[in-house]
């Protein structure tokens, strides 16, 4: 089959012919129709992936084969989900076929288009991991209350997290560039401020509209000024900020009333420890997080209900096939992708 893999020199992606994955117990084989692009995909290609690793996380397609004993899905079913692309040579969504455990896919209802399903996997999984699992909010129809802060409202995760937080009952305040204000508000944000006005202005505006701050926040950028801003809008009594990267020691020390919780959706996809980090050195081992995989399998059973309640992917921009993905990586690396999700038709 054709797949986008890390090249032999480990300097970037190349389309190559590789074996169709061999199924393990509990696996299904998916013929990929569409694959979405996330920031983690180009970062793996640039810094993490080893030669031959298949790139890409998000996918949607049709079940082509089922391992003996798998009864949750059947050949011909339309499914979507995410895998840890860029880490292994026998899985990854930028390929004609992929293997994935049968309990870690969303069986798509008729009203969900494949291209939309391919654009939401990492964004929704990351949002649920932070807002529901880590911060202890229940799935609908249970309702939360108060304000929720999201740094990076126009990112893929930010848009989907805004939708999710609204469904859970929160009012949402976020930051974005002015060109994306209308988009972020269309996903449910109650207040949006320009992050380019500087940290002090952003913090002052958030504290003003929330009457003193929030108890929970999600920082989708997790570097630079975003960490301090997210911490400064937490109420003095304390609260939690979820991150997509590990915070630096100086930031955590500066805000002792804030619980910083870095999370990786990859812990949902494995039953073994894995290493992640620069291939040049400095990789760290991520342990198995007890209960993560089971939580994710259960969370996937809520996806159709969430969709019917209004969850949507970021705006989809359809692109070409495997050969066009490296150009999409370059666009994202150069900061040219904002308020949208590239999706490739395979």
Task: Give a description of the structure.
By secondary structure, the protein is of the alpha/beta class. The chain has two domains: 176 residues, Medium-chain alcohol dehydrogenases, catalytic domain (Quinone Oxidoreductase, Chain A, domain 1, Alpha-Beta Complex), CATH 3.90.180.10; 138 residues, 3-Layer(aba) Sandwich (Rossmann fold). It is built from eleven helices and 17 strands. The strands form four sheets. Strands 3, 4, 5, 6, 7, 16 and 17 form a seven-stranded mixed sheet that branches. The chain has a six-stranded parallel sheet with strand order 10-9-8-11-12-13, with helices on both faces. A two-stranded antiparallel sheet has the order 1-2. Helix 3 packs across helix 4. The radius of gyration is 19 Å and the shape is globular. The N and C termini lie close together (12 Å). The mean pLDDT is 96.
Descriptive terms for the model:
six-stranded parallel beta sheet; oxidoreductase activity, acting on NAD(P)H; 27% helix; ADH-like_N; Rossmann fold; 2 domains; Quinone Oxidoreductase, Chain A, domain 1; 11 helices; 17 strands; seven-stranded mixed beta sheet; 346 residues; alpha/beta
